[in-house]
Structures are given as structure tokens and as C-alpha cells.
Input
Amino acid sequence: MVRAGYPEHCSLDDARKILLDEFANSQRGTEERETLRSLGFILAGDILSRRNVPHYTASAVDGYALPASATSGAAHATPVVVDSKMFSWVNTGMPLPSTQGADAVAMVEDTSLIEEGTASRLKIFRSLTQGENVRAVGEDVMSGQLLACRGDKVTPALLSLFLCAGVDRVAVCSRPKAIFIPTGNEIVSSERWFSAEKIEAGLVADSNSAYAASMFSSWGYQLDVGPILADDPDVIAEAVSNAARCYDLVLVSAGSAKGRKDHSANVFSRLGRMLFRYVRMKPGRPAMAANIGGTPVICVPGFPISCAVTLWSLVYPLLKILSGENVTEDYISEAIGVRNDIEAKLTVQHSSPAGVAEWLRMKCASVDGAMLCWPLSAGASVLWALAESDGISFLPENSLEHPSGSSVTVRLTRNVDFSRRLLFQGSDDPAVGLLVPIIRQKGADFVIRPVGSMAGIAALGRGEAHLAAAHLLDPSDGTYNTNYIDRFSNGRNWSRRLIFHREQGIMTARGNPKGIFCFRDLASGRVVFENRQPGAGTRVLFDHMLKENGLEKNDVAGYDRISITHLEAANKVASGVADAALGIKAAADALGLDFIPIAREPYELVFSERFEEHPASKILMDALESEEWRESVLKMGGYEWPV
Amino acid sequence: MVRAGYPEHCSLDDARKILLDEFANSQRGTEERETLRSLGFILAGDILSRRNVPHYTASAVDGYALPASATSGAAHATPVVVDSKMFSWVNTGMPLPSTQGADAVAMVEDTSLIEEGTASRLKIFRSLTQGENVRAVGEDVMSGQLLACRGDKVTPALLSLFLCAGVDRVAVCSRPKAIFIPTGNEIVSSERWFSAEKIEAGLVADSNSAYAASMFSSWGYQLDVGPILADDPDVIAEAVSNAARCYDLVLVSAGSAKGRKDHSANVFSRLGRMLFRYVRMKPGRPAMAANIGGTPVICVPGFPISCAVTLWSLVYPLLKILSGENVTEDYISEAIGVRNDIEAKLTVQHSSPAGVAEWLRMKCASVDGAMLCWPLSAGASVLWALAESDGISFLPENSLEHPSGSSVTVRLTRNVDFSRRLLFQGSDDPAVGLLVPIIRQKGADFVIRPVGSMAGIAALGRGEAHLAAAHLLDPSDGTYNTNYIDRFSNGRNWSRRLIFHREQGIMTARGNPKGIFCFRDLASGRVVFENRQPGAGTRVLFDHMLKENGLEKNDVAGYDRISITHLEAANKVASGVADAALGIKAAADALGLDFIPIAREPYELVFSERFEEHPASKILMDALESEEWRESVLKMGGYEWPV
Output
């Protein structure tokens, strides 16, 4: 699409091609570096050896140098004995003596020295050919030999080869100088962010500078970071124009979207030539690039994940080109630091927008031999998901529907020992979260998907969890879990283990400003309620209480609002987005909320027969018995151990 | 095997286990670092968020904040119009206004602003639910939430997450301080190596320090390098004992074998407790380790490749352990920097020694859909092979015979575009070598295996080369190549292309000290001859000349000595190891030898029908026509273009 005089909304492939073609010949100059300081640089010329390596005829073993002809016919049964004038000891690497006509070396284990006073003779058990166990001059490298070509990267092996070959200095491509310019009135420097007692609403930390500089560092490059600029087109224009003069690559953070403060496109057009605006990828759509006086200037979107994918997919290959390096086919994996790719089955359906490539942050687990995966979050602003993910799935623009159970490629960015990772799906509880560091310290891993009690045992039924947890009340008989497990286990022999009882109740703001004293007050119309997702045990309890109190869903304002965890619900109340929520005492306590007790529930682990075969199951069971865990759970409040 | 009071000749797995078990609890202490300077460090404790992220209720889009209830029933056909008091503009990330009861944001594209003088009204085309397009407090991260566990590595994503979460400092495991101590009277510092006009026989460059420091640097670690020590046990003992006090990891280069100057084992035993000596791997056998006052001290063998494999297989995992990191299953690939593994067919038979693991430096090429590989050199001293290799094959100790054609795994350490790599097998000629940089600059690649004329066309016949080159005289009719090609092509339609004629002759030392004037002088008994390998065109020529002169192999001293290339043979003469060799004028000229012309030969490329389909074939053909190549060939001397 060209409407603005330059391509808009191009595919990622097109955007990258435009960018790389534009700057294909914009490598910085070359420079001479000491070989010892050239690691990782790209050679600007071919390198020829200046020396023969070795530069002398050397022994390749420890033993005796002598003329091969003197050993003729030697064997274990018929050793040959030679006179002291004929041989001399050489260590590995020592030059062959030039006297004596020595042209081979007998390994010490093929000889026996006969000491006879001052003289000595040598018994040899193996006949030698001329040159045997001898390293000829230039055997490794000959003077004038081509050692490496222009465009090669200096590796540790090349560097030490150059050294041996007498190459003390090498011409390399200069590294591009790059700068990152954060913009935005709302952006707060890390110094202020860390030191401020209270941060005003609307302000955000300048995390993109830190992320970009860290990524550059992991790629072996330096990235300067400029001061944070206000949303003023003139200020931005001056800074960008200066940077384009002094640097080889300029990254401008944010201002590329269509918000009222997004000045970057205007600034870029004013200063130079726009190359493209908007890339059909999610996140990362507002990425944009321009040529300003011959310098590439890339506008990196402000959302952290959008910033990250723009760095991986556009900045990294450009950096390679500017450094004189080739861009490999799988440059994205290289940029992200992918260790290997795995195929995994999606545990949830995923719809990818039409015509748009999509980046997903994936979590993975292996259950009963099946590799499973699920996206952690689709939000571009959610840094946690990037840090927590095991890898990235890149869904190309022509991929649309990914039904649950379909296979996707996950590019793993960390080493995971999947054989020691347990996947827990089920009822959310902060006490379960406290198990994670304990289990991790024992060398196993524990991944929690707080999907709710019902979804947890359903996942167990589908083989998509090692274990589940539930507190599902059956109002018809007042039992917990039994009837639900019967329904989902399908006759399989699942085990249950009661972990603790916990208190459920109504969480309200401290001081209970809305005056909520009993369940019926939630239907007073004065109160916005925060509910939990369908299938959550807490919601089952809430529905049961509604019925017991003769109320309907519609009587409760906010019935359709959904938090996924107790802490999330508590947080909604704490931050005033909701007035009340049903949840456990520990969550209310954690956020300093008032708590009106409603019920005491059993919280049970549910697992299949195969669970106990898992290498991490004993570590989990030990953690559940550990003093460390029990103490920290009791500290939260609202828990009781089973007697 | 325990004979010395500690295990000797252990397997690599055992050696590593002994080492890692011994120092499993020897991590250095912990330190606090600024989060912004913690990239790559291992966390020494769990990290909890200190902030809600976001810390305020924020708009997730650009649009109008308003109460969701006011949009009830809005649709494209039935827009809802709200009053100016009901809505206000918000940019993405801006806080929701606390007045007006705003609890949702209408995306700008779902609205239309009706300007009416100073007031304005908003038309909304989509009904909203409470909280829609709103980011709740703590949506990304909640205060107190576990962000990372002890033992996690600080990645760019974690680092910026910590920043957002208000974590300004983190406790990390201190990095081990490591030192490399080169030893050996024969070792010359790089300064002296570079500056000396002439290096005495027996001296070698200190390349291992540079290699080790470069590898540490590529792993993100610093390695100090001590001064080079003489082969004096007391000097070494003092240095090692000081280093063990001041450092967390000490590497001593060389001195671990059984040579007369190998003092390290005695020194280690004197100062501390030996852990093992000799590892059943090739190269790398003399690796050795000790615990000296609680500090790991590893003796790294002196041969460059032995040094390299010891660093990869023993030092790297120990470094991880000392840093508080886990050792992954595939730590060797991680250490070497492997990008991916491929399966490839060996083009040569390889015998691996019994009970010993072996490291091979592999070169690979893809011919007609088959991935081929061959080891570059088995020598532990040969640095060139490591720099030139595409990857490493690790043959475990139970693997013995690898017949030609069998499959091995190659761990690729560089990115190779195999679709653009040509494999040339055949007659050696330095002029062919000059094609490499020219072809490389055009984005293709040209790998030369100088196996000789006959082996080259045989490889072409087996589908193990894209092209061959030959100059094979048939003495029966005086023709070149035709009869040989008929034999190997098996009726296939191979093409030939005459590249040049070149002069062959006898190469002797400058001044011709042995007085060689005609072919028969080679059989005078005064002269040591350097021959070429069977199947080399030059050897075929030599055998023919022998016959013509009525001579036998046995008449020529050195007939069984083999050089693989013209330059290698010339080098043997130049360095005095041989008196004469048959070879081309260019090689004699390159090394300043005298040259007695014997024959003028056609040098032809041979290739199959499929060659021209190869993406790099045109680049090769262009290179053969290029002025650049022809000029540099003519400069060498002894070549003539076909007329």
C-alpha cells in the first residue's frame, strides 16, 4: 500500500527487504585492529599467513630422533639396536637435530634405552619410514596461504590461527555506532523510577532503553542511550538530526503510532526520506524507518514487546548489514538467542489476525510424552510474559486458525529440562505459587496455569496436566470435588490429596467504605463486584450462594467482570476498580483488604496414576511437607492443615 | 584405573563428574548489583516485584474513556451519542480519568466526534463492557509477585521486567575469577612472536592464552592471563599456589603429559589433591585436574586442539557450576557455540580408537541432495583445521569404525548456505585456490579438496563432488584425461573445460646444490625425492617418466614420501627435508626454488550435467573469466591460457 508516498502496512519481509536494500552499501569504513583485539569483528580483507607453521621440522611425539634407515626391519621379535651417536631425545614440538641425519622419531613406547656407563644404546621395536612422527615445516599453515576471506567473522580459532601465522593486525569492518533515543512525556528514567517514593498515574519506566541496550550487548554491540525527550516535534527533530549526523544507526523509541502525541513520522519526513510505516505484524505494527542523510533511523514502537520484536526482526538484520556481515536465513532465531526449535501441541485455540504475522510468547511442558504449549499473553505491553516464556512462536501472516491440539513450532530461548517440569492446571491459590521456588531449588520445575478448578480437572482428563487442584462444591450433596472428578476421570483411577483448608470470603476495601456486611449486600446496586472465570471453584461457590440467597446474576453489578486469580480480584478491589470480590483470606491480607468470611473449603490436589512415576513428583510431595513451605503459607493467614 | 592414588585414564563423563562433584558447592559468594548492570548474571535469590505494573488504571488504546454503561446497545446501525461531560480523550497508557465514572475506553476507530462549537458530542458504534480496553492495576505484574527464582539467568527481558517492577538492585552469584598460566620454555609471547625477525627452531607462539581468553569472552567471562613460566617445577609451584589463593579457577597450560619437562602432575600433587589425570579422549588426553586449597586447578594440554576440547568439555561446565548455573545436557554444543546439528555422510572411512572419545573437525558440503562430510585433520596441533571446519563431530568412546558412506552428526559452529557451496575434488593447483576469495565475494562458496586427479574424478563418479579437475596422462596414447574420464563417468555425459596449461618440472633448492640437471639425476642415490600421493596427476607423470628413463621406484630415494599439494612438496624442498620434488613452476616460484622444466600439461575441469543447475556454477565460470583471477594466476608464473 503506497498512499503516503512510501509503503505503509507492508509485510515484515517487505519492510526488512526495503531496509536492507536501502542500506546494503552503507557499511562503515574499515579499521586496522590488533589481532588480539579483533574477536567477533568482520574481516575487511583476505588474510594470508605470514609464517610457516611450524616454521621448523618438529617432532610430533616424545621420543628419539634418528635416521629412519637405521630402523629397517625392526619389530618386537627382532628389535634393532642403535649406537648413541645415532639418536637423541626429543620432546614433542622440539626441532629435529640437524646432525645425525635424523628424519624420523621413534615414539618412546616403541623403544628401550640401554644405559651403559656414560654411553648408551637404544633398542627399537618398530621400523620407521622417513618423516614418521615428524611435523614438516608448514604442515599446519604455509606462508602465503589464505587463512580467511573478507566477510569472515573472527572466531577464537581464527584469532589464534592468525597469531600463530604471524598476523599481528587485521583490517576489519568498523562496528556501526548506534544510539537509542527514548521519547515521551510519560517516560521516566530508571534513576527516578527507582528513587521516587510514589510514581504519578500515567508515568511509565523507561524499560525499552534497558532492553535494547541489553539486546545489543548480547549481540556483542554497544548501544548508546540518549536522554529522554519530551513529546515536542522540534525537540525530537533536533535530536534525531544530530544523531543521524553522529551515528550510523539511530533508534527512536515511540511516537510512530497515530496517537495525538505521535510526532515521529512527521519528523522523519521533514528530515529525510521515509522508507516504510506500519508493518503487518502483531505486536510491532507501528514500526517505521527512514533514511536521514544516509543514516538509517528506525522508529521502535513504545510497548515493550513491540519494541522487542522490532529489535529482533528489523534492527538486528540491519545491524548485521551495517557491520559487513551476511544476514542468515534464520536471523530471527539468531537475534532472539534461540537454542533449538520444538514442535508442540497448542492446549488452547488461537486465532491469528488475517494478513498479519504474529509473535507469541510460549510456555511449554511435556505431559505423558506429548509436548504441549500455550501462549502466555497477547498483550504488547506485558513484559512479564516475555521474561516468563520458554520461547517464541512466529506465526506467518498467512496462518489464521490454530485449533487447540494443532501443532506449532516453538523457538526455545532457554534450556528447559522438560523431564523435570511438572505442569499444574487448576484452582488458583497463592500458597501453590510459594511451592515454585522451593521445587526449583531441588532441581525440578513447577509450572502453574491457574485455569480454575473445573478447567484443571478437565485438562487432567485430556492429558494436558500432570496434576490439578480443585475445591468444587456440589450443592446437591454438599460434597467437594468427588462428583466432578467422577465426571472427568472417565473411570481412571485418579488420586486426591487434601492439602489444606482455606477461608473464602468477601474482600472489600480497607474500612469497608461501601458497608458490606453480608452476602446480600453484594446485590444492593451500590456495589461493583469482581467475579472469577466460569469453572473457578470460587465462582461455583458464588453461584451457589446466590441461589441460597434467592438472587440472580443480574442482581449483581459486575457479575460478568472476570479476574483469573484471587490476587488479581483482590487487586481490582484494592485499586478501586471494583468494590468487592469473593476470594481467600490470604489474598485479602496480602493487599490489606477487609475480609468477611463466608466458607471454609478443602483444597485438594488431583492426579493420575502415572503422576508418581514423574521424576519431580517426589520433590513436589516433599515440598508440601516441608517446614519452609508450611511456615510461609501459615504466615499468609486463612489456611489450616488437615488433621 | 586408580594406580596413582587418584583416577587415571578416566572417560570424559567420569572426569567431568569428578570435577563437578568436587566443586558443586564452591560457588563464589553473592554480591548485590544494580539491576541495569546485572545482564547475564545468575540470581542468588528469588526476586519479588516491588510495584504493581501498571501502577494505575490505564487505557490500553487511543480513544475515549467513558462509563461502559453509557454505551449499552451501541452498534454500527444504532450508534449511541454521549455528551461532552461523559467522555474524555486518552492516549494509550494514559490513566483513566477518575471523574465521570469512566471504566472503559472506546477505540477511536469505533467512534466519531461531533464538534459543536466549544462543546462536542461523541457518537459510539460499539457497546463496551466494564473494563474493556483498560489495563487494570497490576495487570502485568503485581506487587509481591515472584518474578524470577534463584538460579535464573538475568536476560534482557528479565532485566527490563525488574526495572519496571521497581527492583533496582539484585543479589547475584559472583563470577568466578579465572586465570590462565602458560608454561614451557618453548612458549613465546605474542608480542615477541609478532616483532621478532626470525624465530628460532623449537619455539612456538602462545596461542592457547589467546584462544582461552577469546572463548571465555564469548561465554561472557573474563580470563586473566599470567606471564609465561619456564619449565621449572618450583617456579610453576609458586605461581600455581599463589593463583589458587587469589583466583576461583586456575588453568595451567601444558606440562601434563609424560615428557621430561612435564612437571604439572608433580606440582599439583605437592600443592593439593589430584582429582584425575588423563582423559580417554582424542585429542585432549593429557587433561588433568586437582583441588588446591579448595580451588579447582585444571591442567590444559599444550597442543592447540587439545587445549580447545579441554576448555569445551571440562572448563566450561566447571565455570557454569562455579557461577551458580546449571550444566545443561548439551553443554558441549553450548560451549562451542553450535547453531544446529546435521546428519552427514562420511566421504572417507574413519577409525576411532577403541575406548576413547574423539573430536573431529568437520567440513561439509551438499551434493545432489546428499549432505557429505569429512574430517579436516586428526592432528591435535593443527589450528588451521579448527578455524576452517564447519563444525565438530564428537564420536563417543564406544564408537569405532565409521565406514565411508556412514552417517555421523556434525554440530555446526557456523552458518553455511550449503545451497551456494561448491565442492571441488581433484588435482591440486594454487591457481584454483585463488578462486576462493573471488567466489566468496560474489556470495557463493568454493571448497577445495586437493585429493589428486584420479581421486577427483572418482569422487565425481560417486556423486561426492560438484566438479573435479585433472591432468592425467595416458602414456599409451599420450592423451590427457579422456581415457580416465571414460572409465569413471560410466557412460554419463560429463563436460570438460580446459582452464590452462601449466609447466611441470623438478623443484630443487635455490642454487641447485645437489646438481640435478635431468630426470635421471633423481635416481643418483645422492638425492632424497619428495613424491605425491597415488592417483595424483603429478605422480602419474613421474611414474611415466621413470618408465621412459628405464628406472624403477626403488631407484629413487624417497619415492614413498608423500606430499598432498605442490606447495607442500615445494615446502619440503625449501625446508631441506627433501632435495627434489616434481611440481609446477608456480609452486617453485612461490618458495624461491630452482626449477627444471619437464612437461607442459593441460589442466581441465570436469563436471556432470547437473553442475550447471547449481546456483554457484555461473559465479565460478565468471570467476574463471575474470581479469582479477587471470592476472593473479599469470603473476605466479608457469601458466598459459588456452588459445
